[in-house]
Structures are given as C-alpha cells and as structure tokens.
Specification:
The protein has 402 residues and is mainly α. Helix content is 74%, strand content 1%. InterPro entries: ABC_transp_permease (IPR001851).
Length: 402
Amino acid sequence: MTTATPEQATAPVPPRPDPVRKKRRRVDMRQYGILAALAVIIVLFQVLTGGRLLYPGNVSNLIQQNAYVLILAIGMVIVIIAGHIDLSVGSIVATVGAVAALSMNSWGLPWGAAVALSLLVGALIGAWQGFWVAFVGIPAFIVTLAGMLVFRGVALVLLTGGTISGLPRAFNSIGSGTLPSTGTPDLITLGIGALASLALVVQQLKGRADLRRLNLPRERALSFVLKTAIAVVAIMYLCYLLAYNRGTPIILIILATLVLLYSFLLSRTVFGRHVYAMGGNLYAAMMSGVKTKWVNFFIFVNMGFLAGLAGVVSTARAGSAVASAGGSFELDAIAAVFIGGAAVQGGVGTVIGAVIGGLVMGVLNQGLSILSVDAAWQQVIKGLVLLLAVAFDVYSKRRTGR
C-alpha cells in the first residue's frame, strides 16, 4: 500500500477540462468538409478552364441547368433522413411536364393555372406512393421502383406525339428568365446580395447569442467570424457575377425560398424532429408517440410536390415536354444528398448539405463540359466522387465513435 507524501497531498489538483471549451475546439469535419471540397473543385476547374468556369454567363447557366437537381435534393434529403429512398422522381418529372404542356396547349389553361395543376398532380402522385409505404407497409424502394415504371409509362401515353413545344413565354421564363434588370451592373441583383448577406449575419449572430444564453457549446469566435465572412463574400461575389450577366435568375429566387422554408421545417418544427427521430431509431420514435405512418405519408406527398415543381422547371427551361425527360434525375438527387453528408442509414442530413452536394455535381458537370471531357468519363468521375463522399462519411463516423 502506498501513501502520499506531504508534497503530493498539498499539490494542487489539475482542473478538469471544461467540456464546453473542449467541444469548441473540435471541428465538424462533416459540416465543413463538403464546403472545402466544393471550394477546391471550383478553384481547380477555374484554373483548368483558364478562368472560364466563373464567367457570368456560365454561372447563370450553372444555376438554371442544375435547378432540378437542387429542388429534388431538398425533397430527397427528407426522404433519406427518414430512412427511405425514392426512385420515381425522374418519371414524375416527365409525367408532370407532360401535364403542364398539355394543359396549356391542348386544354387552354393559362400558364399560372397549369403550374398549379402540375404541382397538384405531383402531390397526388406522392400521396399515392405514400399510401402504399405508410399504411400498407410496402418498402419505399419497391413502391417507388414500381412508380418509376408506372409514371414513365404514363408520360409516354400522354405524349403520344413525342414532344409538345410552343409553350408560353411567361411559362418558359420560370426556368430561363431573370428578374427585371436596371442595366449593367444590375443594381437589383446587388441589392438582393446585400440583403441576403445582412440576413445571414443577423441569423448567425442570433443563433450564437441563443447558444450563449443557454450555456451551450459554441464554435470558437475565430472560426465563427471566418465562416460568416466567407459566406458573405461568396454571396456578394455570386451576385456581382450575375449583375454583369442578365440579372438574378427567377429560379434562384425559387431555390432560395425553398432552402429557407425547408431548413426551418427540418430544424424548427415538430414534423422535422419526428423525421430525424424516425431515421435515428424508428422503434423508439413509435414508443415516444410519433405518428410514424402519417409522417411517412406526408414525406412522400412533399416529395411528389417537389418532383412536380422540378418537372415544371425542367419543362420551362427546355421550352417543351418530352417523354424522355427526367432520365436519371433520381440518381442525381440521391447522389447530391449523400455527397452533402446524409447518412445511408438515415437520421442524419441537412437541406444546406444537400444543396451543396447538388452544387458539387453541377460544378463537376459544368467544368468537365467546358473541358470537353467525354460524357462516359464524366459519369465515371461523378461515380467516384459519390463513392469518396460516402467513404468520408463512414470515416467521420468511426473517428467520432473513437
């Protein structure tokens, strides 16, 4: 048996590390890793293309060409967080596009009513699939696989002539139009950027103040300031590029609205908490009183609604409806969600992450196209990026577990 010496007995006990301070020093690799990857990809292609990637026209095209992926990714991340998958969204895009074109060209509806009808059709398709998943108990993989076949067939039946074109200009502007411009540079676009930057700073400061008030862990001040400054610079630079092109794309306003709305839905509402609870532990969520059947039902109604919106946007940008529209859209959306940090098992993911994942895919497509890389190699590269993203997710979980 050993006894303490007088020096040891009187020696001050080293203070235990403050758990809050310890958490402050840790960097969330899953949160910042995808942002760093997007920045690296942009810089890489900016160098390889001789500065052409960030030409104002190319930036505007990047937003408009990838709008459908971003819209679908916002809905798909909710589906995947809940532990499901949806393979039918590409076929729904084709079906809704056909309905939109027919309603304007053959049924005589004004373009606004045609858009409303298209969104309703998308929501009804989602309700149909949600019924089988939620109340009958058929796995979402099987239901949406059947939906992929069924609604692709419906699109072919509706578009017996192959293509419907000659759509109203106001409708086409949804996918390819811009807000009214004041000239070059467009002051409206610069003003939108300034307001968005101010709103971001206020929101970040409020969130940090709430954490301080509740005595919860916060990221270090330097990291917080640096992150916010980079975000403001990125917003203003994007608006600067758009101001010297044609102004703010209409679809960018739609996307920004969706990001804000669905970020609030997932993080600030009971429905969002229930979605995360079901993805984390379905049995525990059921025992806690979560009405899992109705949550699953509305998840697919929402996915159908957003797929309908993506169908409207893609049809408007193309200026016509074709039965082959939406091919591989579901794979692009799923890839964007996983690249953006969602967990394969469910329970993890954010709307912002899914959007960033979609931008990664979009920048890859844009950069490789500018470099005239063969389409086959583009598929290879995108597949490898998806694999690396999921591998990074697995590594992050193991590192956190240790």
